[in-house]
Protein: nitrogenase
Organism: Megasphaera cerevisiae DSM 20462
Amino acid sequence: MPYHQFDCSKCISERLHHAVDKEPNENLTDALPLGYLKTIPGTLSERGCAYCGAKHVIGTPMKDVIHLSHGPIGCPYDTWQTKRYISDNDDFQIKYTFATGMKEKHIIFGAKKELKETIKESFRAFPNIKRMTIYQACASALIGDDIDAVAKEIMNEMPDVDIFCCHSPGFAGPSQSAGHHVINIEWVDTKVGQVEPEITSDYVINYIGEYNIQGDQEVMQDYFKRMGIQVLSTFTGNGSYDDLRAMHRAQLNILECARSAEYICNVLRKRYGIPRMDIDGFGFKPMATSLRKIGLFFGIEDRAEAIIEEETKRWQPELDWYVARLKGKKICLWPGGSKLWHWAHVVHDELGLEVVSVYTKFGHQGDMEKGISRCEAGALAIDDPNELETIEAMTKLKPDLIATGKRPGEVAKKIRVPYINAHAYHNGPYKGFEGWVRFARDIYNAIYSPIHQLSFVDISKDEISQDKGFVTRQ
Ligand code: CFM
């Protein structure tokens, strides 16, 4: 019986098939939970919306751009210092947030005038920035404000300015994943091919599906540079708007997060004949294999081998120190999408951890399939659990650590399951050889933190009384 029986399935019976226990020797179809469906009314999803996927995951890591939200002020909050895609442009894109701040009267009379004024005011405030992206939020999409027409008017009035319009309101799909798709296609359809780059190497790539979380992109860029490879653009971490308009001139697209960015790779292959190569920057072995693949493609295998040798020599001893202390610890891997299958096997093979549960928040069936096929038998596979299910899973599985986002992470912390942030990281970058050691170190620090020696209340056993306004032991 692969389906996992949650107590809360009594309340929300549709959730029953969203969780399975991986059993030995069963075929994969029986072992797959349902996923990537509309959120069930009555359950509290941790998912983001399609606007969030377009703007906050993919759009805003672009560094030299005013990112403007056309909608109420609440929508863009996530871009204001709460994100983690740093840049070498003094983090311009996460320092400021821009919005038209639509109000009730705009819903009735429209907000095109406000949009135009806000665009001009934003460019006036930052005269060195000549590029802008406008994101349609639910409110402006519902009333049908024509953001493209306004952008066109501005570009006619201000010839040194270029504007990209993204049409991915929150309701455009079941989760952030729909927004990834929309912005991929709109970018390649409306912007790629407009700029001719300067080619400075015989080996030219786009690095795609990489968002420079705490510097991941910079670690990888350094390897590419040492191999003599020119990175024409990064889609989109630390990426420049105009570099990304020149993507059509690369010889190869290197794809890291297939969940969020395979769409643009596939169009670039079809339209411009640029091949796609999927790589994996997490873990020593996947990283080495990726560098070898790239080296092989360009006929520069020796350069790849030199980096692998140097980096392994430098970082292996530190990794070994952590592995000796992490061996056998139980971990729940609950990231958003593709990190599940990027990590599921390497945390076991390279860090010695036992994966007791895998999940995706918004992954497609294929993401879960890859994740579950790479983790050990006995693991609980679950799609987008609500808070009650999270508490139950933590209580039953008793993991030593959960790697997840801050929403389930905070729930886990309340029942004293150590948590590290799988999205924003704790002290990343986590990619590359040095990044993998940082990942091991953060896991070690979380598990061995002395704070866990303190006595605590187990809320899963109803030991809580809050009637005096604070939590006490019964
Ligand atoms: Fe790709 Fe991502 Fe992810 Fe993703 Fe994300 Fe992210 Fe993630 Mo958070 S693009 S699918 S929508 S690897 S923001 S950088 S960490 S859920 S697993």
In short: The mean pLDDT is 92. The radius of gyration is 23 Å. The pocket of FE-MO-S cluster is lined by residues 53, 57, 176, 211, 213, 257, 259-260, 335-339, 423 (CB under 6 Å). The CA atoms of residues 73 and 351 lie 43 Å apart.
